[in-house]
């Protein structure tokens, strides 16, 4: 899906392209929707949030590659590795420190090693929902700034082309 979005956007003129940064917001939107559904749907409907989570993860992985190549074109590898390291670290820490500790505490309240019920996952999912919402806001802010920067660069390019067409940038050789 992301490759279709990229091709659709990149085949347009630079002035008409959709910012690739918006793909980060797609990933966040899918994750927010899936977390809300995990909290409210009955057991029989749980495959839907799993599918949305898979789509969100796919959009997120593709966004890391596309955004780092687009925004940080001079040295995408360094930025890609930093972004990937942050994703990997957060997965480890959130699973171990947030979900694992909460699940263990709730299981002990129930008198065993296994926790049954929504209360076992409610707090970690709400915490991740809040994090996803702040990530969505951050992506929107980043997209807004990148679009503003792109407009300035495209306007400068347009002015330079006009001046070149008028012969104002031509260099006379003796």
Defining key terms:
mainly alpha, elongated, 174 residues, 75% helix, 5 helices
- Major sheet description: none
Overall shape: it is elongated
DSSP summary, beta strand count? 0
Proportion in β-strands: under 5%
Measured distance between first and last alpha carbons: 56 Å
Low-pLDDT runs: none
Keywords: Membrane, Transmembrane, Transmembrane helix
Transmembrane segments: 20-41, 47-68, 80-99, 121-142
Summarize this entry quickly:
This protein is mainly α.
Overview of this protein structure:
Keywords: Membrane, Transmembrane, Transmembrane helix. The protein is mainly alpha-helical and 174 residues long. The chain has one domain. 75% of the residues lie in helices and 0% in strands. It contains five helices and no strands. The relative contact order is 0.11.
Structural topology:
Elements: H1 2-10, H2 22-40, H3 47-71, H4 76-109, H5 122-165
Helix pairs in contact: 2-3, 2-5, 3-4
């Amino acid at each position: 899906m992301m490759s279709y979005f990229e091709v659709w956007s990149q085949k347009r003129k630079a002035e008409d392209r959709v910012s690739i940064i918006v793909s980060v917001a797609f990933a966040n939107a899918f994750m927010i929707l899936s977390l809300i559904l995990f909290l409210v749907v009955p057991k029989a409907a749980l495959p839907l949030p799993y599918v949305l989570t898979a789509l969100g993860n796919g959009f997120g992985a593709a966004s890391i590659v596309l955004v780092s190549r687009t925004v940080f074109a001079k040295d995408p590898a360094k930025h890609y590795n930093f972004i990937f390291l942050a994703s990997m670290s957060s997965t480890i820490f959130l699973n171990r420190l947030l979900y694992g500790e909460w699940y263990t505490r709730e299981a002990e309240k129930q008198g065993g090693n296994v926790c049954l019920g929504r209360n076992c996952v409610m707090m970690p999912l709400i915490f991740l929902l809040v994090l996803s919402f702040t990530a969505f806001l951050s992506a929107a802010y980043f997209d807004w700034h990148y679009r503003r920067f792109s407009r300035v660069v495209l306007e400068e390019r347009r002015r330079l082309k006009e001046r070149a067409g008028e012969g104002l940038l031509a260099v006379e050789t003796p």
